[in-house]
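Predict structure. Chain length: 197.
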Amino acid sequence: MRVVLPSIERPKKLPVVLSHNEVRLLLKAPKLLKHRLVLAMLYGCGLRNFELCNLQLKDLDLERMMLHVRQGKGRKDRYVPLCAMQIRGLRKYIRAERPVTWCFNGNDREGNPVALSTTGVRWIVNEARKHSGIPKVVTTHSLRHSYATHLLEMGLDIISVKDLLGHADIQTTLTYLHVAQLGRQRPFSPLERLYGP
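Prediction complete.
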């Protein structure tokens, strides 16, 4: 007779989510417009690091205020909205930097323009975190987590958030319901009421 032991579930880690104020601090930390825009695109569009690196000028529809994310995870395309602030920044950046193909350029070893690397994006996020004074561990994906959580807290439905993130399975998106502060009454500490009025 064979004994089958139940499988032990791995602990599920909840994502790091920035507050609205922390996002503002992070966005204003870089001196370069390009770096501020990289952060604004990661947070404001919920992009994955490699999706940001693959952005081309042809993917920007500034008139319709939409961004075409091509071949995201699972080789799926999707559209995400851009806000007026991002569009103003993008127009100013494009006029000044004159990128040709990629929205955000890096340089290869010979100094030729290439798409910004995922390492370059991580460096931008890390430097911004250091200069902002935010003590949390902030990664490129923290901005995507914050995007999803903030949208839910602002009242967007879970199916729309799933589509904007490009998730194949709703279960992945449901994680954000554990960190979003939703419901009729926000959670609070009992200490708040113990000594309160």
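Summary: The chain has one domain: 20-182.
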